[in-house]
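Fold this complex.
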Amino acid sequence: MNADALRGHMEALLLSVLEREPLHGYAIIEALRERSGGALDVPTGTVYPALRRLESAGYLAGEWAVSGGRKRRTYRLTDAGRTALAGERSAWKAFTSAIGSVLDPSR
Amino acid sequence: MNADALRGHMEALLLSVLEREPLHGYAIIEALRERSGGALDVPTGTVYPALRRLESAGYLAGEWAVSGGRKRRTYRLTDAGRTALAGERSAWKAFTSAIGSVLDPSR
DNA sequence: AGTCTACGTATAGACAGCCTACATATAGGA
DNA sequence: TCCTATATGTAGGCTGTCTATACGTAGACT
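Structure:
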């Protein structure tokens, strides 16, 4: 997976993976890897800053917890985050449609 | 169309639009706009450097021509460019599949 | 003649997000 | 003790896209 290709889609991925249930950063990385069948292996240096950005934007709410002696920062989707996710999904459709219409070899 | 989203896909777009016939930069921009139904309106500051990159990589061959008193640099796809385009197409499929599998709300 | 728009190529510098590499720390098994 | 998995985070680099600008021709309109 080309690194540049992810640009601008990371936020949609994070919001989407948090739609079902709140997760902490490490679990989010695993969820992305599992859901994509191993194609998405996102480094921590990408995820943690992105989560902070989304929190600052009001799309996520983070909270510290302790589980088995380890500190975790668990993020949940806010209402604004849900709205943003819907927007990201339609943007994704428009994006793939636009690129696809050019890349399609049949035309 | 978010600018960051284009990152890493520009080269595929350029190669694809040149698959049928050689075109010059200005015509490429128009072709992208038309093929995408207006969704892709790429500025010259993006296209011209990208064309030079692809030429340097050996995927395009550029040639100066004069038409109606105007200088044009026409680019055609090389054999290596065709191979690269095929690779870009399969990369695009893998990319949309990976992102789609995460973004799909049904899972 | 002067102005405007479309055509056509190109560069400089700003911007931003993803990356690598590193730092820190606990738990548990070999 | 050492290694791996778990867990969060930052600093700095990289690079491709963008905005803004520059240059120039052709043709239409006033």
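Chain B has one domain: 3-101.
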